[in-house]
């Protein structure tokens, strides 16, 4: 898929011309498009795909809910809302100037959703968390869209980013989010063994020596970092965090020690495939966020129709 991302585009550059530009560089239009746009786009697709897939796997493991997804639980909406505020009120214009806002928005939204979802006698049930996430995400998304519609300058700056796209991203975007995504991935990959214990229930997990509170806090921190950085780089991407862990679980079973590494590989594959598909479906490029939504929505409907959907 990395090779496909480098050699397939919406323009008239042939695979041979792209290969020549990669091998020899140059200052002509083809070399600039390939080396300054397609190559960073491929790197960013790998990073964002891995980040959102692992974030989805974390959310599903912590909530014991196969419907959990950073988008469904409002995390991406929180990052989007914060970026809108940054562009509207601070004049932010690039990744480095609003990545902190995206991280803060994702973190605060995660906390709000968890607090709402844990109210009541039953505690943090999967249904309550999903409902809380959808509600909070709808509110923040609505306010963010209202701000963009009332401010033409903000709308012009955010309209392509808002659709979820890798188009036009260059190497500064990659270097801007790379440290955060690496930190989030490293943190997440230390948790699968503890998450296996949490999946058995709090009482059993404690008897096995697992630190439930610490595991959940670290998982939330990792999700916040991964979703904030990924959303800042590519915009709101829906359903990828739901789809990829589901595919991994169907292949390797419920063991998080296998789900996480499979998701780490499958995430970039699915995301790059959606990006390449968006380049060739229509004459003008279709944003990758729209492609993932078209693919992910039927999967979500199929999952909701299954029995015992609230349990992993």
List keywords for this structure.
mainly alpha, 76% helix, single chain
SS elements, strand count: 0
Coarse structural class: mainly alpha
- What is the first-to-last residue Cα distance? 30 Å
Q: Report the total helices.
A: 14
| Oligomeric form | single chain
Radius of gyration: 19 Å
Give the helices and strands as they follow along the chain.
HHHHHHHHHHHHHH
Poorly predicted runs are 307-312
Share of residues in helices: over 70%
Proportion of beta-strand residues: under 5%
**What's the mean pLDDT score?**
84
Biggest β-sheet, characterized? none
Global outline = globular
Structure, described:
The chain has 312 residues and is mainly α. It is 76% helix and 0% strand. It has 14 helices and no strands. It has helices spanning 2-7, 15-24, 29-63, 75-90, 95-117, 126-150, 152-162, 171-188, 192-198, 202-207, 212-234, 240-252, 256-281, 288-305. The longest helix is centred in the N-terminal third of the chain and has 35 residues, at 29-63. The two termini are 30 Å apart. Mean pLDDT is 84; it is low at 307-312.
